[in-house]
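User: For my dataset I need records formatted as: sequence, then structure tokens, nothing else. Please produce one.
Assistant:
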Amino acid sequence: SLAPLLRQHGVRAPDWIVVPGTQRDYAGGAAATAARWPKAKTWSSRAERAGRCSAGRAWEADGVRYAFLHPGAALPDLGTDSACVLEVRSAAGSVLLPGSIGRNVLRRLILQGLARPVDALMLPAAGHRRALETNWLAALQPDIALASVRPHHPRGLPHREVRAALERLNIPLATTAACGAIGLRFRIDRPPQWLFERHRSRRFWYATAECPRQR
């Protein structure tokens, strides 16, 4: 649930809600969330919603720029490939949130010149094999790749080929299965920090080599 997380960080209500896709993984609880905070602007890949996350839409707030890179306004419904791709940038750091898009969209972003280096990358489709594009990963050069997956995922996500590609490119991987809750902290006066619940609450976790060191 989003509400406890916001309370933990002292946030009374979100300014924006981004629902990247229509699958339950991404849209589960979206209606309840929008009802709880009716003043928050909601963005979605679904055309019937008030705010469609069309490529080219961008805004700035508190020195942070938010920009949707996909889907294009003229594109038809592409299923999971119609997911919102949100790029967040500031002087302190950058994050790319690509939703559930696959290899074809990743290649399209490269051709459009929209594969720019970022500090942190949320793996598309939780690291599914269909979302593996090595040239895209190499263009982004993230300091860390993240994936929200449960332990012992039935599909084995992130896929072993995705893990191998990240290893070849020397990109550390942090998953919620291995690291627990993951936090990113960006400050102007220091490099971005990665914070993992596994390292903060050691008595609740067994040691694992799959969770990288905090930075």
